[in-house]
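yo, TRAP-type C4-dicarboxylate transport system permease small subunit is done. seq:
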Amino acid sequence: MSEPRRKLVTGLTWISIVLFVVLVVVVMWQVFTRQVLQAPSAWTTTFSQYLFIWLVLFAVAMVFGERGHVAVDFFARLMPRPAQRITNIRAQVSVLAFALLGLTWGGLRGMAISWDQAIPGLPVTVGQMYLALPIAGVLMALFALEDLVRAARGEDMLAGDDAQTEAAIDAAEQKGA
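structure:
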């Protein structure tokens, strides 16, 4: 993993942790006000829903950056190396297209449509809350672009445990040689 990518993934990890902690505190406050005070807080339900969306989007970008996402590559690994490379390139182009068109462009359009739409009980608008979509889209697009370049070069891009296993095997082979 490149150093800029590692730093970005670490930043996303901390953002996800902070969002999760805030989400837990907000939900606990919601339960406390409803069950103990018998006066539910008006803002907590809406805020926790948007907070959860932000958490999911940034956590997905973080996992994508770690290459820890679900990858069904069983059949791709059975193909000859040139076909694996082409399959990998197609997959990265698809992810890049989704990140740019679906999340970034779609998120920007959603923000534009709802920028001035107020959220009852919160000091922000719906459009401002939709800001997480294009941010996550740009981050995922950056990761996908780096992965696309690596795939075009023919570099192996094993995900998650496979990469760790491969590194351990390489280290053992070098140690024995």
